[in-house]
């Protein structure tokens, strides 16, 4: 049966009493054909969500495509800050810290040092300062060979993004509007998965009924107008479905409300990464709540610059064996130093060790190999989403997927515009699909309601907007079906 197989308007129903006047009644009436409801429901969801949430998805896709280009752009724009001439000699970390502190003065507090990862790279000495945003630090870039100050910039997060990349990142995350703006990205991430999965259901239904199956995996040759747009929309969508669902699911983990529920679920199921213990003495057993979370905490006391070298040397004998490393002094008395690997490329290296700054004894260590499977998957999902796991290849794939999603939204609007009701009121394409849920059996209605409740609980913003869509749709239907007064006879005018 076709997904749109309904009796044409005006076709008479078969007479159960007989086929013609005087004919004997049939002993067995043919079974009544049930009207389809699932595919029309998917079409209604896909249509409404695409029309109403499409702008948010489009902005998220375009800004995301721009973001994956910024690491390469950053290396060019900030080449002077990030690179330095290779030297046969090297200053100690303590000496580099003193140079940075002399440059900063009393305006900020030392919070971390990132030694030069490779020859030709600069060292970052990082400070907390009033007026900076969450996860932001002021970084002084030092030539480890000569001590020359190569730059002084605000950097963001574990990735250490410089101002250009930070601006694009915040555009993608919150439209550069701060916390209120994050609602846009949560709306886009939540609805992207719904739109894509509904579209996939429609694609499968059409694949089962059409003879030209190849036209669903590539645009139909020679097609024009609406059919051409539909061919590109359908074929492009099926090639992007896995990437789009992945970006939706991983993007939700950063969201305000849905992300909090994901974190709570991971904690309840013990899917979190093991925390590093940093408390010394009798208080041992408390873990560092800020480890690997990008939280900037200034030390409560002065830090001896030479301790950076000593602590780093101990960490090298434990589990820290990569170049990309961050060394953090204790944030309070009775706390240990933390040396954390920050290499996000594959193979993932995020091992950490805590060290007593006085005795240089190892307090605790956490290895990525010991992470629970779900914690590893979460780490990899974040790094894939940010384009750091497989470097340039990862970034190219993300750019293609994000650009494809943006194109899908534009094609969807073009399809609607091509067949909009105001252009030809006699055509149904482009107008909202017919209501489907009233056709569903009770078990179908119960299933849809149950799924909506679960989704609304896990993703509150999606649930709220879904409820608004349903209420708005009900109002529109009520107005549309309201009986109208008979039009006055033209002859009496």
TrEMBL record:
Q: Has keyword Cell membrane?
A: no
Q: For this UniProt record, give its keywords in alphabetical order, as a comma-separated list.
A: Membrane, Transmembrane, Transmembrane helix
Q: What InterPro entries does the database record attribute to this sequence?
A: PepSY-ass_TM (IPR005625)
Question: Pfam families from the entry?
Answer: PepSY_TM (PF03929)
**Record region (Disordered):** 1-31
* Regions that span the bilayer: 41-69, 188-208, 229-254, 396-417, 442-471
Q: Does the keyword Transmembrane apply?
A: yes
Biased composition, Low complexity: where in the chain? Answer: 12-24
This protein is called PepSY-associated TM helix domain-containing protein
The scientific name of the source species is: Microbacterium thalli
- Taxonomic classification: Bacteria, Bacillati, Actinomycetota, Actinomycetes, Micrococcales
């Amino acid at each position: 049966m076709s997904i749109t197989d309904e009796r044409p308007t005006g076709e008479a129903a078969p007479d159960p009493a007989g086929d013609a006047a005087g004919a004997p009644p049939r002993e067995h009436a043919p079974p009544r054909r049930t009207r389809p409801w699932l595919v029309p429901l998917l079409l209604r969801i896909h249509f409404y969500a695409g029309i109403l949430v499409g702008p948010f998805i489009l902005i998220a896709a375009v800004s995301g495509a721009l973001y994956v280009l910024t690491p390469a752009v950053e290396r060019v724009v900030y080449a002077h800050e990030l690179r330095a001439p290779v030297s046969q000699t090297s200053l100690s970390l303590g000496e580099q810290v003193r140079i940075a502190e002399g440059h900063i003065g009393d305006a900020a507090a030392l919070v971390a040092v990132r030694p030069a990862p490779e020859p030709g790279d600069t060292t970052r000495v990082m400070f907390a300062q009033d007026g900076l945003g969450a996860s932001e630090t002021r970084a002084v870039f030092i030539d480890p060979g000569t001590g020359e100050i190569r730059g002084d910039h605000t950097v963001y997060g574990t990735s250490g993004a410089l101002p250009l990349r930070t601006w694009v990142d915040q555009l993608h995350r919150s439209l550069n509007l701060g916390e209120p703006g994050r609602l846009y990205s949560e709306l886009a991430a939540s609805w992207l998965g719904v739109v894509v999965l509904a579209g996939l259901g429609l694609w499968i239904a059409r694949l089962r009924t059409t003879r030209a199956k190849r036209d669903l995996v590539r645009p139909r040759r020679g097609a024009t107008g609406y059919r051409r747009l539909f061919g590109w929309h359908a074929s492009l969508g099926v090639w992007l479905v896995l990437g789009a669902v992945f970006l939706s699911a991983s993007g939700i983990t950063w969201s305000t409300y849905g992300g909090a529920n994901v974190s709570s679920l991971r904690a309840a199921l013990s899917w979190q990464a093991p925390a590093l213990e940093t408390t010394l003495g009798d208080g041992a057993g408390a873990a560092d709540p800020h480890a690997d979370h990008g939280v900037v905490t200034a030390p409560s006391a002065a830090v001896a610059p030479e301790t950076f070298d000593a602590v780093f040397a101990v960490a090298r004998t434990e589990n820290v064996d990569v170049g990309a490393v961050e060394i953090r002094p204790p944030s309070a008395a009775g706390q240990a130093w933390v040396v954390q690997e920050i290499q996000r490329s594959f193979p993932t290296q995020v091992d950490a060790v805590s060290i007593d700054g006085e005795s240089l004894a190892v307090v605790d260590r956490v290895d990525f190999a010991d992470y629970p499977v779900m914690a590893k998957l979460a780490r990899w999902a974040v790094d894939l989403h940010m384009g750091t796991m497989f470097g340039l290849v990862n970034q190219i794939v993300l750019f293609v997927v994000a650009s494809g999603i943006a194109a899908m939204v534009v094609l969807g609007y073009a399809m609607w515009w091509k067949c909009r009701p105001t252009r030809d009121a006699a055509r149904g394409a482009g107008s909202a699909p017919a209501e489907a849920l009233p056709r569903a059996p009770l078990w179908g209605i119960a299933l849809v309601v149950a799924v909506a409740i679960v989704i609304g609980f896990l993703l509150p913003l999606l649930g709220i907007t879904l409820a608004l869509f349903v209420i708005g749709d009900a109002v529109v239907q009520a107005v549309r079906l309201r009986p109208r007064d008979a039009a006055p006879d033209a002859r009496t005018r």
